[in-house]
Amino acid sequence: MQMTPYTLPLLAAALISAIVAVLAWQRRPSPGARAFSAAMCLVVLNILVSLFLLSSTTLDSFLFWVKMSFLGGGLGVAWLVFTLRYDGRSLRDVTRIAALAAVEPTVMFVLTWFNDLHHLLWSQAVATPITAPGALLRVDTRLGPLFWVWSAYQYALLLLGVVILLRGLFRVPSAYRGQTVTVLVAMAVPWIANVLFLVGRTSVTGVDLTPFAFALSGVALFLALYRFRFLDLSPIPRSLVLEASPNGVLVLDGRGRLVDINPAAEAILGCSARDVLGAEGTQVLPALSPAASGPDVELTFVRDGVERSYDLHVAPLRKRMGKLALLVDVTDRKCLTAHLLQAQKMDALGLMAGGIAHDFNNLLTGILGNLSIMQEEAGQLDSIAEPLAQAEQAARRAAGLAHNLLTFSRNGSPAPTYLNLNQSVDLTLQSIAELVPPSMTIARDYAPGLWNILIDQVQLGQLVINLVLNARDAMNGTGTLTIRTSNVDVDERFVRTHPETRPGEHVLLQVTDTGSGMTDAVLQHLFEPFFTTKPVGHGTGLGLAVVYGAVQQASGWIIVETAAGKGTTFSTYLPRCREPVQAQVPAFQEACTQRAEGHETVLVVDDEEMILQLSRRMLERSGYTVMIAADGPSAVTVIQENPAAVDLVLLDMTMPGMTGDQVLWELRRLGCTAPILISSGYSLGGSIQDLVGRPGGADGFLPKPYTMQELSEMVRTTLDAVQTS
């Protein structure tokens, strides 16, 4: 071995290629990075073999390195593997191709070591002695047929890789084309140098400049790595994206014929690509004709027995080569939009219903309060006692309607308890037995071992009663009503098809009738308050609104399945509660026949003049001294001037300007220790409930409407509780 003028340049080329190999290996998670690193390692090996070949001083040494140079046959295989992986082929397919492609280079490398026996690679090799230090050893050889086979095979592998890259060049985003072009240039430089050497057109006689050209390739690959992010970001072929797209894609040529279709479109249209390719697009999808020149079209297809909606969008391809038709599944989006709009509408209706119920309760307070005063003054006069009692009964029925509105608006005051649905449904059915005609059959299908639920017992009763009565009216009193309970574990698949639901363990209550069913128009307004299909005077339109509110307050949901002429099923899902059922003992409280009286001073705060004056009269009739305030600031002023003069504050929660809770905290801040009763047309719940029993908060709650007896009893009870504590 000896130093030659080519030693240092070859070492530099080997170093550059080695650095590129290391950089490629660092990016090995990217497709093709490992194969590219292997190819660059073979380049380094090829350069070092060339260095030793040019440094040889004897024929035997020269021929040894010639034989070693056939290891470079793996370079073509590594190049092919890289281009295939870079193009997006699977590792499994590429491995099979690489195994087949490596057969020829392996056989050739083995045959080189037995060339003296067959002389198929070279037939003679004559060396000219070196005449000066550093001069190259001149060897004249006659190449055999296997050498040209080996060379042709290597060029075929290189050419195939180039074709793969060129084909992918037009199928990847333009941002990636710089990578491909740079890699192609980097590989073309040594390829051209080798061709020139084989045809004897090199500038240095007898020297293969291919290893030197790899130095220029390394510079180009550095540019690809750091300028175009080669191997950091590898493009995914758009054909793979097309195959994996959940949207249906159809490609039409300039004459409207179908030239490509992805698997999603095959599944949507129920066809096979083999059967439809080449057919007119309108034959495969008739809607393509009007959609090609107009806005998006909504289409409906049945997949797996389920009707699904799709938006058809048609866009022209570049250079007027054809059109691209896209089928986008919008079923879930439509369902979500519909449920969102329905939820928004129900929330708006709930807000309105709650406001109506609140104002209604204020009016009823005036009615019931004055009626209670009139009943006391009338004494035993039978001539007006009965009309007054009937008026009070009508007012309390109106209060019941207001309570139903509050339940729908979720402003009610639920007292949830642990219940067994089977037992509760049976007790409710027994209580309304007289409302079910003999011509109607009730079939019970109760699941044994039913899980417990947490729900207000009264609201559950209202839920069952309204569903049963609704079914009775739907069947005109004749038919079969089936009540079914079961344990269900709601899974993610069910949630995807019913956006209003939640996964987890639930107890299902189903009420099914054999009535005439409902139309879609009726179904859209089913749970709205005051909506009814019954004749005037035969229903309030609040029954199903109460059902909706009760289910919502119990953190459940209700699904209605119906069809005109085929009956209706209401499926109510209530969350499972793992606490044991506790026996509920009804607390029967004997009605007070005598008004509770007192002598203390009560401050009444209310912005309704009618309620303000009525409360004052009722309390004064019970012996109390009454002070009044028409708003929050007035009440604060009274306490500031003489806090010890007030023994109890009756405070309305809903007032303009300074709200009831703001007044309460301000009075406590001023040092008011008198008990405070809060009153509202809303039921006890939410923010109101947070104030009652809280340290420094309110001492009790008096719901509107109330009578004189109820007012005086609540005031007396609160005062006595404070005095004895």
Structural overview:
- Residues 355-578 form the Histidine kinase domain.
- With 725 residues, the chain is of the alpha/beta class.
- The protein is 50% helix and 18% strand.
- Helix 8 (145-169) runs antiparallel to helix 9 and helix 18 (421-431) crosses helix 19 (457-474).
- The longest helix has 48 residues, at 331-378.
- The chain starts with 6 loop residues before the first helix and ends with a helix.
- Residues 581-593 have low confidence and may be disordered.
Give the termini distance in whole angstroms.
111 Å
Strand content: 15-25%
**Cα radius of gyration in angstroms:** 45 Å
Q: Could you tell me the number of beta strands?
A: 19
Main β-sheet: number of strands, strand sense, barrel status? 7 strands, mixed
Helix content range of the residues, please? 40-55%
Given helix and strand content, the structural type is alpha/beta
